[in-house]
Structures are given as C-alpha cells and as structure tokens.
Amino acid sequence: KKSLGQHFLTCQWVVDALVKSADLSLSDTVLEIGPGTGVLTRALAQKAGGVIAVEKDELLAAKLQKDLRAEGIKNIRIVTGDILQILSDLQLQISNFKIVANIPYYLTGRLLRSVFEKEPRPKTIVLTIQKEVAERITARPPHMNLLALSVQAFGKSKIIKTVPKGCFHPSPKVESTIICVSDISD
Fold it and tell me: Could you tell me the end-to-end alpha-carbon distance of the chain, in angstroms, rounded to an integer?
C-alpha cells in the first residue's frame, strides 16, 4: 500500500547488515516494525531468542502469520497495529530488547521520539532510514540539530552503510542508509 510507505527489502546483503549491526544473541528479543513479507523477520528469528513483528497492514500480517506457521517458525509473534499507538504497551511487556527494522520513512522522527520517551528503552536500534535523515541524526558539533541532540542524548549513533534504491521494491525516490543507535541509556 502506497499510503503506508511500504518498500520491501530485496537485497540479502542489506538484511545481513541489519542483523549483524544489531549484534543479536539468543537472550535478545527483537521488536521489528513493518515486517512486510518477513525477509528480515526470518533472519532475525535465526539469531534472536524471539521476534515481535508489528505490521499495520492487516492483509500482510495475516499472510506472514500463515507463512511462518507453515514453515514451523515459532519464535516470532506477529502483532497487527500501528506501532505509534501500541509501542508503550509493548515496551512494558518486554525487556532486554532491540529494535531492528526497515521502517516506512515517514515514521522515523515520531518513532524515535516515542521510543526514547518511554521505558524500558531498547539496548540498540538498527534501522533503514532516509539517507539525509541519517546524516542529520549522526551530525556532530557544530552541525547538530534537534533530532541529532535528542537521539544522541540517549545513545551513540552511526551510519553503517548506504543502501541503493534498487534494494527495495518498489524503489523509493530517496537514498537510504542503515543507521545504528547503540549503548542506549535508561
């Protein structure tokens, strides 16, 4: 759905880079926002103890749930809903978690603000986001802005890798980047 800003990952190296950047172990729970067809979700489930995947598109959520059941993958829980409306409830239910996701780009600022406003906070956040937003988040003095200050007040941010438009279907109109925010304080 174009209205949901859906751009599905098609390059395995991007999935691998997201998973590697999150430094997952079986003691981690991953909160994934917008799992779509589950390409990243399945990779996360192989490295983490559990995955909670929040999908706003009811049809995609139902199909992914059905596919995962058929594949016998049991450490993924699909939640249907708007992450901004259910995030605080999810944060209260889980601890020792990380966020790893290929999010719709319109969500970036509001999502980060919501994540940092509530506790417990994730240990790490790894996202694909719009390149220019990633550059603003990781800016250093004297080029910092409010977004950089708010994110860097909670953790260390760095750009991992630029992702070409061709690694998504449909291709977005903007360049993308994998960003990592680590060492997040409570």
Answer: 36
127 to 14, 19, 32, 121, 139: CA distances (angstroms): 11, 10, 10, 15, 17
Find the helix or strand (DSSP H, E) in which 147 lies.
Answer: helix 146-152
Residue given tokens 């060492």 in the structure block: 183
Angle in degrees, CA 73, 79, 82, rounded to 5? 145
Record the tokens describing residue 80, joined without a space. Answer: 């249907």
Reported as a pLDDT band with limits 50, 70 and 90, residue 93 is confident
For residue 137 the two structure tokens come to 């988040």
Tell whether the model's pLDDT for residue 21 goes beyond 90. yes
180-183 own/partner pairs: CB under 8 Å, 24+ apart: 180/21, 180/22, 180/124, 180/125, 180/126, 181/124, 181/125, 181/126, 181/137, 181/151, 181/154, 181/155, 181/156, 181/157, 182/123, 182/124, 182/155, 182/156, 182/158, 183/155, 183/156
How confident is the model over 98-145, as pLDDT tens digits? Answer: 999 999 888 999 999 999 998 899 999 999 999 999 999 999 989 999
Helix (H, G, I), strand (E, B) or coil at 88: helix
Q: Give residue 6's pLDDT band: very low, low, confident or very high (50, 70, 90).
A: confident
At 75, the amino acid letter reads N
Query: Can you name the residues that pair with 8 across neighbouring β-strands?
Result: 169
Q: Is residue 3's pLDDT more than 80?
A: no
166 contacts 1 by C-beta, under 8 angstroms: no
